[in-house]
Amino acid sequence: MRNHTIMISALALALAVPATSMADTQGQGRGNGQGPAEQAGGDHGSAHGDHGNGRGDGNGSSERGQPAAREADRGDGNGHNGRGGQGRAERDQGRDHTPGNRVEVTRPGNSGQNGVGNQGRDGQGPRRAAEDDAVILHDRVATRGLVEGCPPGLAWRDNGCLPPGQARRLESDAGYDWLWNRSRDDVRYTYVDGYLYQTRSDGGLSGWLPLLGGALGLNHIWPQQYGYQPVPTYYSRYSGLGDRYDYRYANGVVYGVDPQTQAIQQVAALLTGQSWNVGQAMPRGYDAYNVPSAYREQYKDTPDRWYRYNDGYVYQVDPTTRLVQAVIQLLS
Amino acid sequence: MRRLAPWILAPIAAVSLAACNNAAGDAAAPAEVTMNAAIAADDQFDTLEAVVENAGLEAVLNGVGPYTVIAPVNDAFNQSGAPDFTADDMAAQGAELVRAHLLPGTVTREDLLAAIDRGGADGATLLTMADEVLTFTRDGDAIVVTAENGATARLTGREVVASNGVIQPADGLLIGAAPAG
Fold first, then answer.
1. Helices B46-55 + B91-100 axis angle, to 10
2. In a domain, B48, yes or no
3. Considering only CB atoms, which chain B residues are within 8 Å of A287?
4. Where residue B40 sits, what CATH number does that domain have?
5. Which residues of A touch B97 (CB under 8 A)?
6. Can you list the alpha helix ranges (DSSP code H) found in chain B?
7. Nearest residue of chain B to residue A209 (CA atoms)
8. Best interface-test mutation with B: which of A146, A179, A238, A296 has the largest number of B CBs within 10 A?
9. Cα(B118)–Cα(A184) distance, rounded to whole angstroms?
10. C-beta separation of A144 from B131 below 8 A
11. How far is CA B114 from CA A255, B106, B124, B128, B138, in A?
12. Cβ contact (<8 Å) for A300 and B179?
């Protein structure tokens, strides 16, 4: 039987009184975070805030095998050097008395990935909840997680970072680029040799990204210039990743990498990278009930509660306001 | 294509029928095979199976998930004029195609119908793992899926509720059309 842990923030408790009935215990947590940046990217020396880190304190306990609710203070945080900062509040989680198992839920704000500010498509704030050990999953940004600036080996020029030869190649060596182009984007994408390049209307290159199946395909060596994050402990446990590989998260994908050779040996999971935060609106695109089969009996939609699954969590949503009321971990 | 023994296929069919009778939110008992195995076992998904393998995504569809795949049948690849996503140099394109057809969570046909009915004329919107929003509407008894790029497909046949998600057969590819010329 799987154990379920429910984290309900102080805000959630205020907004969603019915949710408290699901709780057996209460705890306290507080936290704040700051996001240092890592340097990455091209020769022009642009800084890319890779991810934020944070610290927080929390305490609480729960009855074994019972869902546990936790109150938490709201925390503040900032990302540095990346274009965006990210504020979040930590959540103290009680699960089988396991110490140090905390969950953080982001507040409205802006987070940085590889230096690119992030905002949900619908302006609903950052797109990923952070998790224990002060690890934050990369947000998948409106620009698809592209790294700003010049790709490795290309110097910044007046018209961008594409040398003429490379520019001509992007024009002539298009590999079904229309697969990546989006009507909502005012940019163009070009696929060459495993990488996706984003170019502006004036032809200058504005971002690049190694692609799943391309430079990030099986048996490819992880590109040194491309940042990643370790997979948070919760998701690792949820998905049973184990320790066979060095698991890395980047742009919505969990990769299993051989720690010795740095070769990608497995594409373990795909994630939306979205952040669902208590008190914020449910992201667009979850109109249908989608709770995993094993949890449908426990988390059924009712007239006053919806449940939606995303990236290893089930979220309780108010059907009327569409506000997220609670975050529910599914741990095996 | 890898074949599964008939004893493996039997519970898939049985569970699919059971799932069709479930109201939205009711438990849909999963089969004991993964989505990857169920796709491999069904001839109508031969091309999709090859695309998944070529893109290196088998472990994703064998993993915990769950996901719902809007699964193009073979004819969808043949009729669309799409490139050969099974070619060695098309792995990245194939991965993008799979992401554009993959939804987070377990979404049964009944779940879709319930959501469409709630949404009225606007239908129901569901996010894909390619960060695209699909819109599901009714056309008579059929469910029509429309991608942001305008591509459409109809859900066909019976869904397969696997151990780690749901397979919803579809008659088209939800990718943008190749530019003219």
1. 120
2. yes
3. 115, 118-119, 124-126
4. 2.30.180.10
5. 179
6. 6-20, 35-41, 46-55, 58-62, 74-79, 91-100, 109-119
7. B92
8. A179
9. 27
10. yes
11. 35, 14, 9, 19, 11
12. no
User: B181 in a domain, yes or no?
Assistant: no
d(CA A270, CA B94): 14
Average pLDDT over residues A104-109: 34
For chain A, the average pLDDT equals 62
CB B67 within 8 A of CB B52: no
Distance CA A267, CA A256 (A): 6
Name which of A178, A252, A285 is nearest B133 (Cβ-Cβ): A285
User: Is residue B175 in some structural domain?
Assistant: no
Give CA–CA dist B121/A278, Å, rounded: 29
Q: In which domain, by residue range, is B152 found?
A: 6-170
Q: What is the DSSP letter of B44?
A: G
Q: Does A146 touch chain B (CB under 8 A)?
A: no
pLDDT tens figures, B99-138: 999 999 999 999 999 999 999 999 999 999 998 999 999 9
Do B59 and A184 count as a contact with CB atoms less than 8 A apart? no
Contact of A300 with chain B, judged by CB distance below 8 Å, is answered with yes
Q: Is residue B152 part of a domain?
A: yes
Q: Which residues of A touch B176 (CB under 8 A)?
A: 178-179, 181
A176–B178 C-beta distance less than 8 A: yes
Tell me the shortest Cα–Cα distance from B98 to chain A, in angstroms. 10
Number of domains in chain B: 1
Which A-chain residues 32-61 have CB contacts (< 8 A) with chain B? none
Query: With the C-alpha atoms ordered B110, A271, B45, A292, is the resulting torsion angle positive or negative?
Result: negative
What's the pTM?
Answer: 0.70
Per-residue pLDDT at A177: 65
The pair phi, psi for residue A101, each rounded to 5°, is: -95, 85
Q: Answer yes or no: are the C-beta atoms of B126 and B107 closer than 8 Å.
A: yes
